[in-house]
Amino acid sequence: MTRRALLFFSLALIVPLLAVPASAQTVIGATTETIYRLTPASTYEDGCFDPCACPVQLRGALIGAFKLTPAPPDPLYRNFKISDLNMFVPAYGTWVTGTGTYKIGGEVALTQELSLDLKVGDRDVQHYDSGLVSGGADFPSIDMTVSMNNMVCHDTVFHIAALPVPPVEIVPYTLYGSNYEEGCFGPCECAITTKPIAGRFGLLKIAGSDTAADFAVINVQWLVRDPVSPTATAGSPVSGAGLYHIGLSTHDQEMRLSLLENGAGPTRFDSGSVPWKSPLRRIDIDVAMSGFACYDRVYSIHAKGHSAAAAVQLTQPEPYHPGVSPSP
């Protein structure tokens, strides 16, 4: 069997992320939370801007997703909370997480503002803001630029272009045989405490090519249970979101999660690049807080997907963005 035939056979075993009918639409209501996905127009820049005389050192595409939830309005603006924001700059391997707010409205002209508190790579959390600018007629589409220093001299700038995602595009996964582990790994010697975890999460495709695919991990809802007397409701809740990458040609995978554990955090967990052997209908991967180095905290994740459609969408270069209708 040729190498191309082997790749085709492997892809045929992969459960896809659901294709969306052309008629699918998303409505942003007054109380519902909505998942947004970045479009290919999103970008990342880091370097010098006017009036400083040095070129922008870093520029790259930006992929990712976030959750938009209505917040109490004020007399002039509709307000929204942004949570579970996870973005990635593939060119530099930069992981970006954060939270923020978005508002749209105004007394005379339509204006909008996007404010984000972001952790970029290993940097401390910093504030990014668009300022109050004109626009917003295309809402629920969001297309704004945020920066730390108003794009003056050295700055980091994100252009966020995003559209709501119909729920049908999110593939649900359920944990089975998964555990939370805390103790010594690698060369260190100490006991490891193991507790079962139960729950679910979803996968949303955010980018893809013939050789790789990227997904947002969304709506993480887990429960770390007492191993002595586990019950359906007793335990420590874990919530959050993240990113999942698979190399179709290199057969590797990596999962990054930003988690709130029993209300504390968020804390980042990363698997590093590890072999990928399972079809996408099943995910088997361990994510660690400190790289599995001596004393660490680890989630050993085993999950099964609920969907079993054809594998075509996984190899499409870009996710399909359906039409969007604003709420009345």
Shape: globular
Question: Count the strands?
Answer: 21
Regions with little confidence, pLDDT below 50 for 5+ residues: 1-26, 308-328
Biggest β-sheet description: 11 strands, antiparallel
| Elements, N to C (H/E) | HEEEEEEEEEEEEEEEEEEEEE
Helical content, roughly?
Answer: under 10%
Strand content: over 45%
Distance between the termini: 56 Å
CATH level-1 class of the largest domain: Mainly Beta
Number of domains: 2
Radius of gyration: 21 Å
Structural class: mainly beta
In the CATH hierarchy, the third-tier topology of the largest domain is known as Porin
What is the tally of helical segments?
1
Mean pLDDT: 84
CATH architecture of the largest domain: Beta Barrel
In short:
The chain is mainly beta and 328 residues long.
What does it look like?
By secondary structure, the protein is mostly beta strands. 3% of the residues lie in helices and 54% in strands. The chain has one helix and 21 strands. It has one helix at residues 3-12; strands at 34-38, 43-49, 56-61, 63-71, 77-89, 94-105, 111-120, 126-129, 133-134, 142-147, 153-164, 171-175, 178-185, 193-208, 212-224, 236-247, 252-261, 264-270, 274-275, 282-288, 294-305. Strands 1, 2, 3, 4, 5, 6, 7, 8, 9, 10 and 11 form an eleven-stranded antiparallel β-sheet that branches. It is globular and about 60 Å long. The model is unreliable at 1-26 and 308-328 (pLDDT under 50).
List the helices and strands and how they pair.
Elements: H1 3-12, E1 34-38, E2 43-49, E3 56-61, E4 63-71, E5 77-89, E6 94-105, E7 111-120, E8 126-129, E9 133-134, E10 142-147, E11 153-164, E12 171-175, E13 178-185, E14 193-208, E15 212-224, E16 236-247, E17 252-261, E18 264-270, E19 274-275, E20 282-288, E21 294-305
Antiparallel strand pairs: 1-4, 1-11, 2-3, 2-11, 4-5, 5-6, 6-7, 7-8, 7-9, 10-11, 12-14, 12-21, 13-14, 13-21, 14-15, 15-16, 16-17, 17-18, 17-19, 20-21
